[in-house]
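Dear Dr. L.,

I hope this message finds you well. Following up on our conversation about the binding site, I have prepared a predicted three-dimensional model of the protein together with pyridoxal-5'-phosphate. For your records, I am including the exact sequence and ligand specification that went into the calculation, followed by the structure tokens. Please feel free to forward this to your student if that is useful.
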Amino acid sequence: MTAVDSLLMIPGPTPLSPAVRAALAEPMRSHTSTENAASMRRIADGVRACVGSRSARVYTFAGSGTLAMEAALINHAAPGDRVVVCSHGFFGDRFSEIASAHGMHPATVQAPWGSAVRVSDVERACSESAAPAVLTITHVDTSTGVLADCAGLARIGRDAGAIVVVDGVCATGAVEELMDGWGVDVVLTGAQKALSVAPGLAVLAVSERAQHRRAQLDVHAYYADLQRWDPVVDDPTRYFSTHATGLLRALEVSLDEIAAEGLPARFARHRHVAETLRSGFAELGFESLAGTDVLAPTLSVLSVPSGVDEAALRRGLAERGVVVAGGLGPFAGRAIRVGHMGTVGDAEVSRTLEAASNALSDLT
Ligand SMILES: Cc1ncc(COP(=O)(O)O)c(C=O)c1O
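The resulting structure of the complex is given below.
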């Protein structure tokens, strides 16, 4: 079974639609061309629609989700500043690591793996000692499959005067986000998950309030300094650093497909796919490790039935052409992570469940 025939059911990168694959194969464009500039303007509109903002400034540069996380922190907090991190898993913790690497002081509110951070705990963290410069929320943590209460957490951050940063890497484009309505200042993501493009783009939507904070800071970075990108955002034919033109064209096509499906329909499809996949796996003896009230629509973290070797199960699935990921942190060795975002629909769910059933039969 080659990658061409395999079904990629990991939580990103995700399968690409035929139109997005065709866009990636288009002839190369100049990074300062009017065609690329037009794509970037349309991308900004599409991203604003996905994150629920009318006026956010959209930055798209070559890099990954982690670069977008780092840019979101260093442009809105200075060394020595307090950063409240709402963490329900591996990627929430990454914000604490980035903050520490830049001499900031992270106050991490950590939920047990499988649960969401409680608003009351964050309220307490925000009121202790110095006011936080930034509060971070991981909308969906890809290590636990937990969906955060973005609206509730953002309100606490706003009340504390913090710039509210949401990591939407495993959510944006598949789960409703209301940046303006929730009072969120930055939504960041990468191209390779629910936006259904290949990896390699860092995407940030930034509020006016956050731009104002950036203007007050001395940022000790070059490529990740958002102010250096501002002339390019204003006029995408200008050069600061070479754009990932092929990926941008693919993102434009993917955002067109998202708009054609319609965001409410797309969010409903993700919920339906998640429920179908989870109930199929439950019949096979798997259990979701995230609490039932916080289950994300984009991926499932499933404990394998007792007595089943998790690595052998994943090998069995791969032999049948379905690729899933292993558990992380405390879930390593006892859970699989199955992504179901972007283009994934009923056919892919059926194929995954059939492969899992057959792989299990071989192992038990
Ligand atoms: C929620 C979340 N945030 C951040 C990242 C980091 O993104 P990247 O691997 O593109 O650097 C990931 C990657 O899986 C993620 O799932």
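In brief: The longest strand covers residues 57-62.

With kind regards,
A. P.
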